[in-house]
Design goal:
Chain A: This is Xanthine dehydrogenase iron-sulfur subunit. Chain A: Pfam families: Fer2, Fer2_2. Chain A: Keywords: 2Fe-2S, Iron, Iron-sulfur, Metal-binding, Oxidoreductase. The complex is a heterodimer of chains A (178) and B (283). Chain A has 178 residues and is an alpha+beta fold. Chain A has five helices and five strands; from the N terminus they run ββαβββαααα. In chain A, α2 crosses α3. The longest helix of chain A is centred in the last third of the chain and has 16 residues. Chain B has eleven helices and 14 strands. In chain B, α2 links the parallel β2 and β3. In chain B, α9 runs antiparallel to α10 and α10 packs antiparallel against α11. Classes of the chains: A alpha+beta (178), B alpha+beta (283). Chains A and B meet through β4 of A and α2 and α6 of B.
C-alpha cells in the first residue's frame, strides 16, 4: 500500500471553524463521526442511496458518505443534526415525528429530519407531493413513510402557527461545545 | 482497501491535464457520487490519485456567441435551476432533476455524469437531444466533440490521456422537450430505459426534432430516422406519422437483458416513452 499523505483542511462545522488533517479517501461522514464525535449522521448504505448520512453543506442537503473530506474548503459550511439541536424549526419537526409515531428503529431519522428541515426552510407550506419529493433520497425500512409524511405536514402547520422563521438561509447554528 | 495515495488540487486546467496525463492511476473527482461509491467498494484498485476539479471555475452557466455554455462542474441542481437552462431546454431540466435524489443532485455534476459514460446516465439523452457539443481541454489544447460522437461504449469515451471535459455548448434556441425514464421506482433509481425529446421551430409550421434513447444500447443513441420523418412533417405531426415514428424509435433501440430489466420490456417501453414525450410536448 502506498503511503498516504494527510491533507490539512479547514471549514465551518456547526458554526465553528475547525481544522483537521485527513487521509485522501476519508469521507465527510467519517470525519464528523470519528474526529468530531458527531454521530447523528449514520452510514446506512455508504452508496448515496439511503440518506441516513444527510448533512447540510452550504445550506444544501448532501450525502456525507460521498463527500471527500479533503475537498472541503475554508468557505464551506457544514451543519450536522447536532448543530440544529436548539433550532426552533428542528425542534418542531422532532416533536411532530414523536407525536405521529414516525420513528421505529430510528436509524434513518437523523437523515430524514435533515431533509424535513431543508424542505420546511425552503417551502414552509409544502404540498403532499413536495413532502414526498424532498424525502425521496431518504429510505426508511420500518414505518413505510405514511407517518413520516404526516409528521412533516404537522410540523409545517405547527411552525406556521407559532410564527417560526422560514425561508431563506438557515440561521447560525449552535456552536460546538467540544 | 485503500489504494488511494493522494488528492491533487490543481488551480488551473493545464495543471489538472498535466497531472492526469502524468499519472495513469489518477481520476478526476467533482461530486464523487459515483466515483467514491466504486472506490469504497474496491472496484477501482488501479486508482492511486484523485484530482479534485472543483477549484477550476467550471461551475458557470453563460450565454455567449449564440451558445449556452454550461461548465462541466455544474451540479444537477444548478443546471436544473438556472434561468438560461429553464427558459430554453426543458428536456435538460427534467433530466437533471431525475438524477438520484436531492442529496445526490446537490453534489453530482454534469461533467461527471457524462464523463462516466454510462448508457443510463440521465443527463446524457437530454444533452444529445439538444445538439450539445463537449468542449474538451487537454495537454495539446482545446477541441470540441459533438456529444452524440463522444461515447464509444459503456464507460468509454473519445477522451485522450490527459483530456478532460471543460464545458458543454448548447445552441441558443428555445426548445420544447421532455425527458422520461423508467426505473425500479419513480425517484432515485437507475434508468431501465430513458428517452429525451427536443424540438424547435425550423420554419413556420415545421419543427426540427431530436430523439435520444438511454439504457437501450452500449451508448446513448439518437433515432435519426424518426427525427428525419418528424422534422420533414408539419407540426404537430398527424397520427399516422406518429405511429410510423414510434415504430422507427423502437427499431433504433438495441437493448439487452441485464440485472435491471429485460430486452423485450425495454424495447416496448421505448415506444411508450416516445408517445408520452410527444404528448407532453404537444400539450
Amino acid at each position: 500500500m502506498p503511503t498516504q499523505e494527510l491533507i490539512p483542511i479547514r471549514f465551518a462545522l456547526n458554526g465553528r471553524t475547525v481544522e483537521a488533517r485527513v487521509p485522501p479517501g476519508m469521507t465527510l461522514l467519517e470525519l464528523v463521526r470519528r474526529e468530531f464525535r458527531l454521530t447523528a449522521a449514520k452510514e446506512g448504505c455508504g452508496k448515496g442511496e439511503c440518506g441516513a448520512c444527510t448533512v447540510l453543506l452550504n445550506d444544501q442537503p448532501i450525502n456525507s458518505c460521498l463527500k471527500l473530506a479533503a475537498s472541503l474548503r475554508p468557505t464551506d459550511r457544514v451543519v450536522t443534526l447536532e448543530g440544529l439541536a436548539d433550532d426552533p424549526l428542528m425542534v418542531t419537526i422532532q416533536k411532530a415525528y414523536v407525536a405521529e409515531g414516525a420513528v421505529q428503529c430510528g436509524f434513518c431519522i437523523p437523515g430524514m429530519v435533515m431533509s424535513s428541515y431543508h424542505l420546511l426552510r425552503t417551502h414552509p407550506q409544502p404540498s403532499a407531493a413536495q413532502i414526498k419529493e424532498f424525502h425521496s433520497g431518504n429510505l426508511c425500512r420500518c414505518t413505510g413513510y405514511a407517518k413520516i409524511e404526516k409528521a412533516v405536514a404537522k410540523a409545517a402547520a405547527a411552525a406556521a402557527t407559532s410564527g417560526q422563521p422560514a425561508g431563506g438561509p438557515a440561521p447560525e447554528p449552535r456552536k460546538e461545545t467540544r | 482497501m485503500d489504494s488511494l495515495a493522494r488528492v491533487h488540487f490543481p488551480a488551473t486546467l493545464s495543471e489538472a491535464a498535466a497531472i492526469l496525463r502524468a499519472r495513469p492511476g489518477a481520476r478526476l473527482i467533482a461530486g464523487g457520487t459515483d466515483l467514491l461509491v466504486k472506490h469504497r467498494n474496491g472496484l477501482l484498485p488501479e486508482v492511486t490519485d484523485f484530482i479534485d476539479v472543483t477549484g477550476l471555475g467550471l461551475h458557470e452557466i453563460v450565454l455567449a456567441d449564440g451558445q449556452v455554455r454550461i461548465g462541466s462542474g455544474c451540479t444537477m441542481t444548478a443546471v436544473a435551476g438556472h434561468p438560461l437552462v429553464r427558459e430554453r431546454f426543458p428536456a435538460l431540466v427534467q433530466g437533471a432533476m431525475q438524477v438520484g435524489a436531492f442529496q445526490i443532485r446537490n453534489a453530482a455534476t454534469l461533467g461527471g455524469n457524462v464523463g462516466n459514460a454510462s448508457p443510463a446516465g440521465d443527463s446524457i439523452p437530454p444533452l444529445v437531444s439538444l445538439d450539445a457539443v463537449a468542449l474538451l481541454f487537454g495537454p495539446d489544447g482545446r477541441r470540441t466533440v459533438p456529444l452524440a460522437e463522444f461515447f464509444t461504449g459503456p464507460g468509454k469515451t473519445v477522451l485522450q490521456p490527459g483530456e478532460l471535459i471543460e464545458a458543454f455548448l448548447l445552441p441558443d434556441r428555445r426548445t420544447a422537450g421532455a425527458f422520461l425514464k423508467l426505473g425500479e421506482r419513480r425517484a432515485h433509481a437507475i434508468s431501465k430505459v430513458s428517452l429525451a425529446f427536443s424540438c424547435w421551430e425550423s420554419a413556420p409550421g415545421r419543427r426540427e426534432v431530436r430523439i435520444a434513447l438511454g439504457a437501450v444500447a452500449p451508448t446513448v443513441i439518437r433515432c435519426r430516422k424518426a427525427e428525419e420523418l418528424l422534422s420533414a412533417a408539419p407540426w404537430p405531426p398527424p397520427a399516422e406519422l406518429v405511429d410510423k415514428a414510434r415504430a422507427l424509435v423502437v427499431e433504433a433501440a438495441r437493448p439487452i437483458d441485464d440485472l435491471r430489466s429485460q430486452k423485450e420490456y425495454r424495447r416496448r417501453m421505448t415506444g411508450v416513452l416516445f408517445q408520452r414525450a410527444l404528448e407532453q410536448v404537444r400539450a
